[in-house]
Amino acid sequence: MNLKKILTKDTILPKLKADTKQGVIEEMIGFLAAAGKFTGKTAAVQAVLAREEKMSTGMQNGIAIPHGKTDAVDQLVAAIGIHRTGVDFAAMDGKPSHIFILTLSPENRAGPHIQFLAEISKLLSRPELRAKLLNAATADEILNLLTAS
Amino acid sequence: MLPAATASEPAVAVVQAVEQMVQAHSPTEVMTLLVMQLALIIIAARMGGFLFQRFLKLPGVLGELVAGMVIGPYALGSRIPLPGIGPLFETQTIGLPVSSELYAIATIASIILLFLSGLATDLRIFMRYSVVGFLVGIGGLIVSFVLGDFCAVLFGMAPSFMDPAALFLGTISTATSVGITARILTEKHKMSSPEGVTILAGAVIDDVLGIVVLAIVVGMTKVINAGGTMEWAHVGIVALKALGFWLVCTTLGLLLARQLTGVLKRFGSPEVIVSISLGLALMLAGLSEMAGLAMIIGAYIMGLSLSRTDVVQELQNSLQGVYDMLVPVFFCVMGMMVDFSAMRKALLFGLVYSLLAIAAKIIGCGLPAYLTKFNFRGSLRIGLGMLPRGEVALIVAGIGLSTHCIEQDLFGVAILMTMITTLMAPPLLVRSFRSPASGLRHDMQEEEGKEVVFSVDFLSPDIAEFLMQRLVRAFRREEFFVNRLQMETETYQVRKDDISFTLSCEGQQIGVSVPSDQQYVARLMIYEELLSLSDLLEASKNMKGLNEMGSELIGNLF
Fold it and tell me: Residue A19 pLDDT more than 80?
């Protein structure tokens, strides 16, 4: 799967500011909306929070993959966010989450949505890449790290 | 299709036989006989298949063949009398040992079989594993053809390598039937292994090129049977004509299939799509025969063309019922045509031919595998996986018999080879996978991920089955190709680009066998579906009480 088709420089947040789960989700969705990726921020936030309510998407090793289905988007939209100190995302291993991959996919349209998350998750299973991402200062650097692999 | 009499047969005998047929039965009697024959065939084939699968753990097709041998005109069939009509199955004096009407039904079954076989062909996997798969497929095909042809001449069954009988014995030996291998590999969780994927890719090439070889051979034998001679230049022309027909039809089919289905979809009726597609498959089958090739070639091309469209699932599902009824009839009729006395004379030849057919695939497929990325163990596994011959071998043998290119003895030999290879493959393949060691060469092992097997227990077979259906739908929504494998347990092959793994539902468990670097998508998909199940359970809590719903449904019935 070609990640370059979905990830672009203007969807990457090298320094997330929010310190709560809801705050991170709102910040990332707001960033995507500001980049002109879609309209209907409230519906998108609700969709992602509804998914989080069922079970947290905080995985292990500081990775979280918040996602939701909403008709606010007409194709897969994704954002990457990095938080240096970490946010409590109710992760599986109880540790704070640092690397966030947020996706929004249309409600009733087929497409490789979970596959995108799976591809990124596979990349992030490598400890050295996670360390490099945490130390990356710019969106360009993060994009290169993810798409060069 | 009416069996044609060869020019060499005395005209008097033909006239007598035709007169005999005309005198013997009125159309009503012919139809009555056909209906009675079909009744016995359908029941015997199904029972034979069932008994072989259930008690001998062998492929059902063998049971259908054996059932045919038992009820055929050379065994019990000629001893079952029908009052006022005669024996249920009578050996015919000319042509095939079964009636033209019955053979027509078997021919239609073979067209349906090849149409569905074309529909199930996965051209993407062929593209993905094209290099190793191509070499394995073509290696097996060439060695099988050459050894089959050579063996016929060596044993005096044919005067030369270019004789139709030798050419047919070569062709019969080429086509791999990968269904049996797929079942064993899935049971052993090896379907997604490098060997498994290579076998699947090899079988696609094998199928496609096998049909091309058949097209060429049928074209050549038609010229020879018409009294022509086969000079090498002539061979080239016939081969070009066959290849031309194949290439033009397949290219046009693949290019136009989406436009065609787009037009058909405007009717908004799945029934119209299925009927017109089947009609076109029959039409192309007929055109293929008129072009001097075999009918199944046209049917396969039509299936292959439609295999990449989005109506493929609809066609497969709708035609499955026709397939289930007709195809066992085909195998049973093939079994009925085995003349044991003629076969006895060629028994030694049959055994040697079968052994060579085994050796051909092990060497022909194993060697290219060994030269590319597999070690001896892996190459042997691939050779053994490509070993079973099945449907296509039987169809080709049937065409050979109906066109008099091969006679009863060699037809029996073809059936014997199909049975031996199909029987030998499962135990040998299981044995070859007993060692957990990798089949890849050392330097190739690092490139491939190890296989991971995991399962989720749902504590109830009903929930597992329900979730399995949702998972299949979810993968399709993610644009994966999900194909159900012909196995007793509900097993699916999930594929997309370089991702390939199997999902199976057995009892209350859903199991996954997946290369380790591809497990993310499988695990995340199951995880998301588990969550959607919790949504459903939550929604069911908000439903009206069961008592209330029950009383609304059946409250006023009594």
Answer: yes
For residue range A76-117, list pLDDT tens digits in order.
999 999 999 999 999 988 899 999 999 999 987 777 888 888
Q: Which residues of chain B have pLDDT under 70?
A: 1-25, 92-95, 122-130, 183, 186-187, 191-192, 228-232, 443-450, 486-488, 497-498
Contact across the interface for B521 and A114, Cβ inside 8 Å: yes
In this prediction, residue B5 carries a pLDDT of: 39
pLDDT of residue B20: 52
Is-contact B485 B182, C-beta < 8 A?
yes
- A122 to chain B: which residues are within 8 Å by CB? 517, 520
Q: How far is A123 from chain B (nearest CA, A)?
A: 10
- For chain B, what is the total number of helices (H) and then of strands (E)? 22, 7
> Is B6 strand, coil or helix?
coil
Q: State how many domains chain A has.
A: 1
Burial class (CB in 10 A: 0-12, 13-18, 19+), B22: exposed
CB B122 within 8 A of CB B339: no
Dist. CA B75–CA A22, nearest whole Å? 79
B334 close to B98: Cβ distance less than 8 angstroms = no
* Predicted complex ipTM: 0.90
With H, G, I as helix, E, B as strand and everything else as coil, classify residue B454. strand
Q: Give DSSP secondary structure letters for B32-69.
A: HHHHHHHHHHHHHHHHHHHHHHHTS---HHHHHHHHHH
Domain of A51?
3-148
Residue in A with minimal Cα distance to B533: A54
CATH number at residue A45: 3.40.930.10
Which positions 437-496 of B are in contact with A (Cβ < 8 Å)? Answer: 474, 476-479, 496
Could you tell me which chain B residue has the CA closest to the CA of A117?
B521
Which residues of B are less than 8 Å from A1 in CB distance? 497
Tokens of B224: 């020879």
Q: What pLDDT does B4 receive?
A: 40
The verdict on a CB contact (< 8 Å) between A122 and B477 is no
Rounded-to-integer distance, Cα A95 and Cα A87, Å: 9
Share of chain A above pLDDT 90, in %: 55
pLDDT the model gives residue B280? 95
Contact present, B412 and B350 (Cβ < 8 Å):
yes
Tell me whether residue A67 is one of the annotated catalytic residues: yes
Most B-contacting residue of A1, A114, A116 (CB-CB within 10 A), to test interface: A114
What is this structure's pTM? 0.64
Domains and CATH numbers, chain B: 11-87 (no CATH), 100-432 (1.20.1530.20), 449-539 (3.30.310)
